[in-house]
Amino acid sequence: MKPTITAFERSPDRGRGLARDMRVRWALEEVGQPYDVRLVSFKEMKESAHRKRHPFGQIPTYEEGDLTLFESGAIIFHIAERHPGLLPDDSNARARAITWMFAALSTVEPPIVERSMAILLERDKSWHKERLPMLEDRVQVRLGELSSRLGNGDWLDGAFSAGDLLMVTVLRRLDGSGLVEKYSNLAAYVARGEARPAYQRAFAAQLAVFTGKPPTG
Ligand SMILES: N[C@@H](CCC(=O)N[C@@H](CS)C(=O)NCC(=O)O)C(=O)O
Hints:
Layout: E1 4-8, H1 21-31, E2 36-40, H2 42-45, H3 48-53, E3 61-64, E4 67-70, H4 72-82, H5 91-121, H6 128-150, H7 162-172, H8 184-194, H9 197-211
């Protein structure tokens, strides 16, 4: 059954692929599953029809027959469980890949989001300039640790997995900050993810929403 996901009708990132529907699109492209997209405005996201899909009035959501899911990590786990290609068959390798999914969402993403939110919402506060270096330090600590673990590897643990998919999308949220570029292996890791044909298709599809023109290529 063809799933339907939700995405911003007009993404605040202007098509840079930083919104979390991008990770769901990418996962669906990796496993070759076609999907439909329901675009929602900020107003619609907070209305009861959408809150039935997503209790917190956010995107992305995922509908497939009777099943409705929210939380990008849970959606990607669901996709990875039902299709080959995003989680290894070996049970220990699979458990480690799932661990990287959690690491991306619960250890690496929070300080990155906190920094972005501070820049977005607290720029005019008198204490912003004092707080920002502390938030950036927290991000740098995580990036340094991740960089050490990745070393010369192409991916975090053997073959590309849903853990890498989430980690790359999380690191992409630092786009334009120059922070990832301080770690050449992390910058190469993100570029490796972005070079995947499935990523390219997903990126083109979300960009087409913003430009109003069909994806090319
Ligand atoms: N933990 C959630 C976060 C969802 C989230 O923050 N979505 C953003 C878009 S990337 C959103 O809908 N923001 C609008 C809002 O919160 O009002 C997930 O991973 O799906």
